[in-house]
Specification:
single chain, 89 residues, alpha+beta, 4-stranded antiparallel sheet, 3 helices, 4 strands, 35% helix, globular
């Protein structure tokens, strides 16, 4: 299963607006994308609640995973969002 490590760029972490934008993008992917912090349990990246329960803050590294056709492209799309400061409108 392909994985991608990425550092959270949003100053508030994956909360509120950044979580909503990320969940919407992940839900629109052709494969299920999961995200985890450290050795924690993965949650669905398409779930705002799941993202917020991670407790991923600015500067934390998270691990994305996906499987199936289009997994690499999906991971790249989601990783690029996480690496962007989504706090700014």
């Amino acid at each position: 299963m392909p994985e991608r490590r990425v550092t959270v760029a949003s100053k508030v972490g994956l909360h509120a607006r950044p979580a909503a934008l990320l969940a919407k993008a992940a839900a629109g992917q052709p494969v299920k994308v999961t995200i985890r912090k450290g050795d924690g349990e993965p949650v669905e990246a398409g779930s705002v609640l799941g993202l917020m329960t991670l407790g991923a803050m600015h500067g934390d590294e998270v691990v994305l995973a996906a499987e199936g056709d289009g997994a690499d492209d999906a991971l790249e799309a989601i990783a690029s969002l996480i690496a962007t400061d989504l706090d700014e409108g």
